[in-house]
Each structure stands twice: as structure tokens, then as C-alpha cells.
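Intended use. Records like the one below are meant for learning the mapping from a protein sequence to its folded structure. Do not use them to infer anything beyond what is encoded.
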Amino acid sequence: MNKNQLREKYGEPSKRASEKIVPYMTDWVQSFIQSSPFAVLATADGDGNCDASPRGGKPGFVKVLDEKRLLIPDIRGNRIFDSYGNTAENPKAGLVFMIPGFNYTARVNGRVRYVEKSEIDELGIEGEVFDPDEGAITLQAILLEVDEAYGHCPRSLSFGRVWDVEQIEHNKANPPKSIFA
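Structure written out for the chain above:
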């Protein structure tokens, strides 16, 4: 089923939900991003194979350049480069920003291009992370041109008790099997 068929079956979105999606970052979305230490970058290659990559740093590690552009510094990681490979074939990307303890999220979708380290240096932007190690160097960055942005309601994070202190303590005491076992 496509989006229109699903709406015929389940109903149209509310006026409020439809009107919150705008082709730029509102002041609220910009402020949220500037306060966020964590985001998930979603990409897909030319065949539609998807990837979701976590990104983190000090609050505001993703730089709001203006209401239509974000700069996401790329701190050296596992060097698999799935996101980069995907966007070489399909420049569309989406980001979901989170702030620990706050159930709302901010979503931004758009088109990306890569920015070389020399361009980042010219802008005076550095990757900002907590507890950096010797590998915490900025390799390059992603510049996202915004197609749409909006705040997202707290229901999913509430449903999952993501920030619930008791749930967090339970998870620490009962972690999933180690991936390094």
C-alpha cells in the first residue's frame, strides 16, 4: 500500500500534524538540535538498501548554519562508511535528534553533500565529543540542505520508557548478550 491508500484506510493526519512539517528548521527545531548530543542518520543506497547510523557528541555537535543547512562533522569511527556510500548513490538523508530525558525529538530530512576537512577548518568548526580518545579526529563532514523539518511528539519514547530511571537500571543489570562474546 502507498501513503494515499494507507490514509484512505486509516484516516488523514490531523491539521496540526500536517502543518508542523515545513521546508526549513523553525527556531524550536534549531534550538533542539543545538541542545542535542545524539542523532541517528538514515540513508539508503540507489537500490533502497537502508542504513541508520548513530552520531553523538557534545550538545550542538551538529552545527546549525542557518534555517536551511546543517553541518554534521564526521568523527573517525569504524571506517565502514555505509552512510557515505549510500549518499554517493542517493543524496537523500534523514536525521532524528534526541535529548536524554526529553521525550520529544526533532526530525530533519534533506539532501547531502560531503565537505572536505579543509572547508570545515575554514568555517572554524571542530568535532565536539565527550571523553575524546586518540581516534576522535574530524575526517570530513556532511552538509545537509533541508527539505523538511519538524518536532515529533513524545509517544514513541514514552511507549518504550526510554528515559525511565527504573527501566535504565534494569537494563544495566540485565544487558543483552555481549557482541564481543
